[in-house]
Design a protein that fits this description.
Length: 190
């Protein structure tokens, strides 16, 4: 069965964005891009909420085309064009987009059906609202977190309205020169 892994940058105090969605506090550099790019390259599917999908769709299809495109932009653009996109959205229902599945209702059944299909893990990119919806339904199998050395004090939390305790098992950690720490967890189903 395929697994859904939530991929997020997070502040030390647990926020994934500032109060107005700000993400200018996130630290990324070539070391992080190279590391993340290796894992993403092994993944064939991306899951997004509508807002994140529209942001990605507005940038990645042509990110490699510019003369100043970075190595990361070229590699991620190539991956993005071939990856199957799964979008959680009530407003995009019925949209006919290439290589894209829109889930607008029956979240649990639809996600479980996708998990049964052949393929690699499914990376849930950003998308706090989509992540919260999936957490509520126990549909996330792991967390791939990049803890940034910053305390925001307020913002959009990664974990909110959790009804039942979620036990996690730490798989790996990695410290980057920038001070960002990668934490990779799997949900411990004991």
């Amino acid at each position: 069965m395929r697994k859904i892994i939530s991929f997020m940058h997070i502040s030390l105090d647990g926020f994934v964005a500032g109060p107005n969605g700000e993400m200018n506090w996130i630290t990324v550099d070539e070391e992080i891009f190279d590391h993340v790019g290796k894992r993403i390259g092994e993944t064939d599917s991306a899951l997004y909420g509508r807002v994140t999908y529209e942001m990605m769709e507005g940038y990645w299809p042509t990110a490699a085309d510019g003369p100043d495109a970075s190595k990361h932009d070229i590699e991620h653009s190539q991956w993005y064009k071939t990856a199957h996109k799964i979008v959680l959205s009530k407003t995009m229902q019925g949209a006919d987009l290439p290589n894209t599945t829109i889930i607008s209702d029956n979240l649990v059944d639809s996600i479980n059906e996708i998990k049964q299909q052949a393929g690699s893990e499914i990376l849930l990119f950003g998308s706090p609202a989509a992540t919260h919806a999936l957490i509520q339904q126990n549909l996330i199998d792991g967390y791939w977190l990049f803890v940034n050395p910053v305390i925001l004090g307020q913002g959009i939390p990664l974990f909110t309205d959790i009804k039942d305790k979620i036990k996690l098992k730490l798989l790996t950690t990695r410290q980057f020169a920038s001070g960002v720490t990668e934490l990779s967890y799997v949900v411990d189903g004991e």
